[in-house]
Amino acid sequence: MVASREGLNAAYDLTNRGRKVSYSLYEAIQYRDSEFMQGIRAMYKYGVTGSILAVAGSPILLEGVFQAVANGTGLSMGLETTWQAGNSLLYYGDLSQIDIVDIGFSAFSKYGFVGMALVDYTSSGNFSMLGYGKNSFQFGTDLLIGGFNRWHVGAMGGAGIEKSVINYFNQFNSNLRNTVGTGIKEGMKDE
Amino acid sequence: MSDKKEFSMVILVCVVVAVSWFVYYISYEKLYTIGTVESKKTGLKSGTVANFTYFYRGERHEGGTGIGDYKIEIGDKYIVEFAKDKVDLSRALFFYPVPDSLTTDIPWGGWREVPEELKKYRRKRKEIFGLYDRIFKD
Question: Is A98 close to B43, i.e. CB distance below 8 A?
Fold first, then answer.
């Protein structure tokens, strides 16, 4: 009746009681203005690598991915495996230097880096540990980078950034730092 | 899990892994031969490993050992210890270098122990921060 008397627009507004039923991307992002999105913005503000991609991406999709990766032990181990394989391929062109013990220790969220620095067991069957095939400099490099990563997670948390966001980026950034550490150890072994 | 509990768990896992490895390694009867260092590799969050080759009964085998504090060059020769029943389980004894000038006949089936003529080239062991010889006096 309203449609015939007042027109289709009036009938549409009446049906939806004045609310809009579709949203622009900007409005959707505002609607999803959760702590998570505030975390993304804070990371961008503090200059954390990669956060610009997160801001540009779909917040709804990313939130699910972030939380799954940040909270899943299996996914942490999967990412560690990927990094180990990538590092081995990058430096030697094969998979001989994948450290199996490190993949196991990636299941520990806070002090796994200590175990990673202490003990090595590669896919080619080489075992070494601090004082037995691994020297203090190499142990120190791995421990310092691991310690810095842990401190960085704490510092970002202290800045009010949501934990799942920090953990997600840390999965990438910590291993990038360790890849640089591998280069440092590579340079030192020929001294 | 609390911080203290997780840290203790990580250390415990390290001890269990290390003890398991040493028990596994010493459970095999060993033979000895001479190996040549072919390359050095460093993994992500790992120490540097010297990869070497050695021959047993005419077959070429490969192995790797963490170099720790030893100065190792590609092409250097060392005594290699390997398991008689699992020939690929091996480690280079970097404290037993073999000089290039030395010519020695290696038995087809390897030595049962490090020969006396090579023992005189033994150098200080650098495991356990250089304290190995003081602690074990072997």
Answer: yes
